[in-house]
Amino acid sequence: MSSTVSDPLVAMARSENGDAFDLFIEAWPSSTRDDQRGQFTSMAEAAYQALRKQGLGPGSIVSGWIRFALAPPWDWREALATAWQTSGILPITALLQPPAEPFRTCSLTLHAVRSARQSGVWYGPSACPAAVTLLRGGARHLRLMSVAPRDGLHKTASFADLAYDMFAQAGHALTARGLSFADVVRTWIHVRDIENNYGSLNQARNRYFKEQQLVRLPSSTCVEGASVSVDNTPVTMDLYAVSAHPSLRVEAIASPTMGEAHAYGSSFARATRLCEPGRQWVFVSGTASIDAQGNVVSAGDAQAQLACMFGHVRALLAEAGMGLTDTLSAAVYLKRPDYLDEFVKAARANGLPATVPCAAVVADICRREWLCEVELCAANRA
After folding, report:
1. Across 244-252, average pLDDT
2. Domain finish residue from 49, 84, 114
């Protein structure tokens, strides 16, 4: 069972499965007239109160993203810990991805879980990567946040080598927890200067996945985004992996309207379905306006690109017997902030509920001609 709730500061969606539930939150500042610190504080407090109303707290968070318009001159981790009355490392990635809403300096996306068993497992000397392991139905669900190349490597290595090292570091972190890249369901990759570096990112990803002999490729989003969590790196990655278990099934969903990304050199699946007892999930990769041959559709026309983009997403969800009303969380990446109104109109016209938590940010996409890209997570009863 899924439900959504919206108030002036927070949008929430909740998916229940027996005694457990997953909660998705999108929080924003109470006033855009406040300075950056004031907006951050009110946003953090709104998210904290939303968690508390659901009987949860910071210790229930399994992943999150803070998106800043400008890098804060203060310690965002310390400010967040103060607002949430907690200590220790949280599995949250901070990025330079300006919110599309005018004068908003930050936004916050959270995924929290109530389950019978949950434990945080922290890897490395700092919060990068931060990791949380959730035990559910006998399977381990792992999030790794802010995976980066080794410190100092940026001084001498090419971007392709840095990206490869990032994947290798993720592989080491997975191995240390008894998993491998074959268990990865979803990745989120954030690249500085993506228009110039996406080709090298693909080169590194293809090389690493080939070496790992992956049969099922994970879903993925790869967009512009400078890390505020890790200093001096042009690329970071977050990922979600699940250990193999007899009660689970993980499979890639082929798109009936798009060609497969690996056919033109990008190693990711268009969407991934995860079936667990009582519920199925679909993780839709970053999806843009593209044809079956991998060409950009409607270059320069935001309205037409949005229509094409949502058509692809609806088709992917339909392959799992879902629709946009099953969405629990979404993120849209817009080339320019003035495309936001067009996105909202297209989202409503295509059936995405207004109450769904949705981060709308300004970010370049991997091809210069693309004006918009959307990703989402959906679930329903299996």
Report:
1. 96
2. 114
In a domain, 126, yes or no: yes
The pTM score is 0.96
Going from the C-alpha of 253 to that of each of 170, 222, 244, 246, 318, the distances in angstroms are 24, 18, 18, 20, 10
Boundaries of domain holding 23: 1-114
Number of other CB atoms surrounding residue 232 within 10 Å: 12
Q: Is 29 found in the same domain as 102?
A: yes
- Indicate the DSSP class of residue 338: G
Which of 84, 114, 144 lies at the terminal end of a domain, its last residue?
Answer: 114
Q: Are 173 and 145 in contact (CB under 8 A)?
A: no
CB-side neighbour CA atoms (13 Å) of 147: 23
Residues 374 and 294 in one domain: yes
pLDDT tens-digit map of 21-46: 999 999 999 999 999 999 999 999 99
CATH number at residue 379: 3.30.1330.40
Q: Determine how many CB atoms are found less than 10 A away from the CB of residue 96.
A: 18
Phi, psi of 347 (to 5 degrees): -60, -45
**Helices within 159-247 (DSSP H only):** 159-176, 194-211
The domain total for the chain is: 3
CA distance readout (Å), 281 to 60, 175, 206, 219, 272: 20, 25, 26, 12, 8
Nearest residue to 230 via CA among 71, 357, 111: 71
pLDDT at 240: 98
C-beta neighbour count of 103 within 10 angstroms: 12
